[in-house]
Amino acid sequence: MKKVLFVCLGNICRSPLAEGIFKKLTEEAGLQDKIFVDSAGTSSYHIGELPDYRACQIAEKNGIILTHRARQVRKEDFNEFDYILAADKSNLQHLQNLQSLVSHSKAQLHLIRDWEGKNLEVPDPYYGSMKDFEQSYFLLEKALKHFVEYLQKEISQKTAKR
What we know:
This protein is α/β, with parallel strands linked by helices. 44% of the residues lie in helices and 14% in strands.
């Protein structure tokens, strides 16, 4: 089973949206039994909180219910997850610094949008309007469709080798 962790700053906007979108896309692709997904934040600002109400609204508008409670990235995540995907370069840098403190990390670190091109970020909508949340949703959905396609190929290649 592949394990994927989405990360943003507070784990109440972009990363829970990514988690919800990714779950929907993996179900549509028939991969829900082959992929585990979670999300976390690099900060401790919102631990235990539900996602921002605007993230919940845009998710619901697209048929997704967000129930995740915010948590902070842990050192164990680097040994537990195959992929840890950051929303932006700042959070990716934080993850790289934390990963350097972990022995035998198996996690591959990437930006969420790496499957569209290098150095593309998902801007933080927290201090913005509903339009900013809609833009985040659009960017995440587009990027995650590419990532699901990538994982489909990876999983089918692994299955073919058996």
